[in-house]
User: What shape does this take?
Amino acid sequence: MRAHDPNSPARPTPGGTGKDATPPRPAREFRFDDRDFERIRRLIYAHAGISLNDSKRDMVYGRVTRRLRALGLKSFAEYLQQLETDELEFEEFVNSLTTNLTAFFREEHHFPILAELLRKHAENGPVSLWSAACSTGEEAYSMAITAIETLGANPRVRILGTDLDTRAVRTADLGIYPLERVEKLGEERLKRFFLKGTGDKAGYARVRPEVRALVRFRPMNLMTPVWPIRGPFHAIFCRNAMIYFDRAAQRRVLERFRPLLHPDGRLFAGHAEGLAHCADLFEPERRTVYRPVADASR
Ligand SMILES: C[S@@+](CC[C@H](N)C(=O)[O-])C[C@H]1O[C@@H](n2cnc3c(N)ncnc32)[C@H](O)[C@@H]1O
Assistant: This one.
């Protein structure tokens, strides 16, 4: 993945946001004390539900100092003050603290289960899927590829990809990835679903228009009081995002997923995201795949 220059204007980087591989910094360029860390921790939790424990202190320092440098600021205090009034910079601040690690067909065992669901629901009309923390788009495009492989060309399937990180969503929207991230899919899928770049686009692959057409991307924070989204979805993928939330925030999200899921739909979670504390909302069906529990109050 090509690293994104944090000093450049907001611009999507093909295939990544360029911040997950932050190298450790030996000496500190800026003073960063407990109060600064605490303020950042509170801000990101209140806005995005992301819980940062003490072990994340160096990561926070590394990510946020890039913003200080980009803006030519001298201290965290100055930066935190700017965040109070500068909405655009607040967006960059949030983007800098998300972790976007993802891959095509990550947690591969989910995709044959998705294929089964697609076959079943496609008999009754269009199928709706949601990648609810889509990062740079690989998950949503993997869902689209599964849909074409399962139902044939031009399937009646619509996929929504949303994420808090506006840069990640712009990258997803581009649908252009470094070849090495796509090659793992194998020669056949690469040929069928991607166009290899040539000339100055050599080394990159673009998702083919017929795959792209099945997916639309939008920025969306799972913590906002209103979700501009209408269900029902036959599958919601919310993988490897809830792991950053505490249990209270996870529950708030899961309470809102349930009414948006088709009664015979499925929720797909990440490998480290046990939902046992929300067993009244979702019951496990297979490894990290959940069925909604009928809402007795409705
Ligand atoms: C590690 S990536 C997971 C991507 C993909 N779902 C996967 O499993 O490969 C986590 C994503 O969750 C997103 N995220 C974190 N908090 C969020 C929130 N409050 N609302 C929406 N997305 C959020 C981050 O921006 C990041 O792109």
Observations:
- The chain has eleven helices and ten strands.
- The radius of gyration is 20 Å.
- Residues 48-50, 98-102, 106, 133, 135, 139, 163-165, 168, 221-223, 239-241, 244, 270 surround S-adenosylmethionine (CB under 6 Å).
